[in-house]
Amino acid sequence: QSVVTQPPSASGTPGQTVTISCSGTSSNIGSNFVYWYQQFPGMVPKLLIYRNDQRPSGVPDRFSASKSGTSASLAISGLRSDDEADYYCAAWDDSLSGQVVFGGGTKLTVL
Amino acid sequence: VQLLESGGGLVRPGGSLRVSCEASGFSFSTYAMSWVRQAPGKGLEWISEISGGGSRKYYADSAKGRFSVSRDNSNNTLYLEMKNLRVEDTAVYLCTRGDIITGAAAFDIWGQGTLVTVSS
Asked: Residues of chain A whose pLDDT is less than 50?
């Protein structure tokens, strides 16, 4: 069981906006940057958001993220069928000599 | 820019294995490097990180005392030595490039992974 919590699933219809939450603690999300990853079946993860709300080059502006206190969220607007994937949040955790913690992942289904 | 893992395979419980990750296309010694694993049908689990120079190392609780991360900057290669392997260590082990400093979950380049199967 991860110390960073995500809903196991989320869904939406094409064109909608879907939000995925990520809840942590003061030692991880509360004091460090949050990163988001997208993973399609059979593929390796891809960095989607870095430093809480920054998009790497090539990531559409339909993807946005924010952080407040010990929680973060990823929003996908104008939902498309090819957004169907697993999404993970991650952050450094200052406890226990330092380590990275991933959320359990959220499977996004586009109905 | 590429990361290529190797060394995975089938190992008996209690056995040992070393997986490697060869980097190319970037200044390897500049970046922290991590190992992340993914068990079949499961989520991502971070295992270990090493700083660019190799002096700082961090481990997940599941890896402490059994796994050891190292790097050879002269050969652009990252290693993960695994001992006393358990069935629950079965996973694809992914090598990933971190930030120029440790202490961030910033993984922008990923290898394709190498499968480690622990089974009797």
From this structure: none
Taking only residues 3 to 42 of chain B, the set having a beta carbon closer than 8 angstroms to any beta carbon of chain A reads: 34, 36
CA distance linking residue A48 with residue B22, whole number of Å: 24
Residue of B43, B103, B110 lying closest to A88 (CB–CB):
B43
Each residue's pLDDT tens digit, A79-90: 999 999 999 999
Alpha carbon distance B44, B37 (integer Å): 6
SS (H, E, C) chain A: CCCCECCCEEEECCCCCEEEEEECCCCCCCCCCEEEEEECCCCCCEEEEECCCECCCCCCCCEEEEEECCEEEEEECCCCHHHCEEEEEEEEECCCCCEEEECCCEEEEEC
